[in-house]
Amino acid sequence: MTAATLDSRLDGVVGGRTAAALQRAFELRTVRELLWHVPRRYSNRGDLTPLTGLPVGEHVTVLAQVLDVRERRMQRRNGKLLEARITDGTGTLQLTFFNQAWRAAELVPGARGIFAGKVSEYRGQLQLQHPDYELFEDREVGSQEAAALDRAAARAYAERPVPIYPATAKLPSWSIQQAIALALDALGPVEDPLPAELLRDEGLLPLSRALELIHRPENAGDWRRAQESLRFREAFELQLALLHRRRGLGAAPAAPRPPVEGEGGLLAAFDRALPFALTNDQRRAAETISAELARPHPMHRLLQGEVGSGKTVVALRAMIQVAESPAETEAGAAPGDGQSALLAPTEVLAAQHFRSVVDALGPELVERLQPVLITSSMPAAEKRRALLAVAGGGARIVIGTHALLSDNVAFYDLGLAVIDEQHRFGVEQRDALRRKGTVLGAEPEEGDAKREAPRRKGAQPHLLVMTATPIPRTVALTAFGDLETSVIRELPAGRQGIETFVVPLLERPKWAERAWVRALEEVAAGRQVYVVCPAIAPGEREEGEREEGEATDAEEGAARPLASVEQTFAELSGRADYAGIGIASLTGAMRPDDKDATMRAFAAGGIDVLVATTVIEVGVNVPNASVMIVRDADRFGISQLHQLRGRVGRGDHPGLCLLLTAAPTGSVARERLEAVAATLDGFELAEKDLELRREGDILGTAQSGGRSALRLLRVTEHGELIDHARSVAESLLERDPELMSAPGLAEVLEREAQQRRLDNLAKS
Ligand code: ADP
Ligand code: MG
């Protein structure tokens, strides 16, 4: 048999059945994927224990000899049980194996070895189920020498850590371990993608050695070194891929969209009409963006800023710059045609963006820039008109949901794509938008000869991504490592504060009543109230996909029904003291125009209390809303709650946020809520979130771009390593942008890109 490589498919290496099981359970298909299925932890065999006085429930290692073996049919289930009794002369112990008759061939009476496992008791008999064991080669029993050898072998064995793999009921850890042993044994020489120099500088184990030691360590030092080496590789390859991608994107051609200088331009007019001065952070971000738009390569920038920090104004200025930027034509500079697209995650938000853009522009600029809204639910005739305005170039600002990505949306000259709330969009959507610029700018529709699109062959639009979720630096590096970052930390002056309180219903059931009365007082004073519930209807699960950081069922009593919009609406409507109060509900299950109408009515003050799911989460702006009550607040993540409460306190009145919860004091859920109540600093909360959250969740949702999950790297814990790996990757790319000196790494990048394409195919 020829040796296996990392790219070999598993069926040829571990057998068809095991391969199928590995694929079903963990989507492992190749030797590489299997070997990167690393142990979650290692258990210690510990010191040798005599068979007298074995502690039930503990892991033990015993040195013993097989007494007898028998196989019997199970009484209650299908299948056969292999039972072996072992002895060390002081006592006996039973080993049991389910459906593994083949072990009878090695566990012959008289065989000596070491047995390790967890002691359990069954009908008064102590036993080890599916123990790990290692038998000694046959030696003459009874000799002094043999006994000494046994002891030495036993000590080495007892020191050897037992890898514990992420496993399933059908595919237990020990059978994964077996498959991995087969793969390691079959594996031929492995070429290390990392240059020798890098291995030396970073003190890394060669790849094949690291893979061997992570799975078959002789002692704890082995797996620790292997973990460190593999973890660095993981961080390094990820950063290298991101940086390489960024370089590639940054090198692509883009049409420069320089600002119009002087006081006569649209941007100058817009600034003059603004009822406020930009904050320093806004100005700084705006200047950076303005300069990047003027370059002949696409901008790729992430704009981070708290809810209400004024990102939209910054984006709007960029859109105006693109619209009025003069285009180079064969006849020289001509007035520009540049269009911008603003992509929002939900219809409600797209509609709201549209309204606030129209408001902010004022009638004169609206006339000049003709902003349009495109959503999948708009009436056909209206949509056709909008699409024509987009294709003809008249509409300079195009606002919509992902419907903008569909094929029938053709731009005349897309210069800038703005994506709001990046965490809901993945890398592939960014790419889809980028392609719109390329294809459509280059080839105007035939027959659309009235105006010829400017020649921008192969040019890509500039890209601005906005997020209100403060992202800790290392997460940003990992999830958005291909983007440059601007941060708006400072909130506009005069912003009213928000007070947040946890209302612990378990300890203080009566306080719920206080919350409803408090809301009523606010309504009486002319203000408006949001009530947020995790579910739409009673007995339902939360709406939509699970949010990052949300409590899991296991973490919290899942049996208790969640507060729902329907039931809360009915409850409030039925209260005598709420008679005459305008109450409405808003959920993602409603028809888009109903949602929109409700949101509009709330914004206009026609509704006093809006009972909603998290559809109101991002960006919604109703300055007169001053109270937010969140029911079952523990069902939401930290960043989500922080975003939610950003809906209140946006006007002249301070905001009040009440987090109702039945989570007990001291639970993680409660701790999350206390954290939210303790600070308004989104960055501090983001760090806290990282601390409390199970790591896997972060990249899972933040990066829906579809990279396979990280193995050893935890953005929560390995910030320094990520930083370091990034700078190593940076300097390598600096010296050798095409990785000529490291062909192995070039292959890694190729594989990475391939993987992304496959993931995208799988999603479409
Ligand atoms: P974001 O998109 O970051 O959540 P917005 O751009 O929607 O924030 O701004 C929130 C509100 O603050 C808007 O009503 C906007 O007009 C206002 N605003 C923006 N920048 C300033 C500023 N520098 N001073 C005062 N108000 C501002
Ligand atoms: Mg916004």
Automatic annotation (TrEMBL):
Signal peptide: none
Spans annotated as Disordered: 436-458, 540-560
Record's keyword terms, sorted: ATP-binding, DNA damage, DNA repair, DNA-binding, Helicase, Hydrolase, Nucleotide-binding
GO terms, biological process: DNA repair
InterPro entries according to UniProt: DEAD/DEAH_box_helicase_dom, Helicase_ATP-bd, Helicase_C-like, NA-bd_OB-fold, P-loop_NTPase, RecG/Mfd, RecG_dom3_C, RecG_wedge
Start and end residues of each Helicase C-terminal domain: 531-691
SUPFAM superfamilies, alphabetized: Nucleic acid-binding proteins, P-loop containing nucleoside triphosphate hydrolases
GO MF term list: ATP binding; DNA binding; DNA helicase activity; hydrolase activity
Biased composition (Acidic residues): 545-556
Residue span(s) of domain Helicase ATP-binding: 292-488
Protein name: Probable DNA 3'-5' helicase RecG
Organism in which the protein naturally occurs: Leucobacter weissii
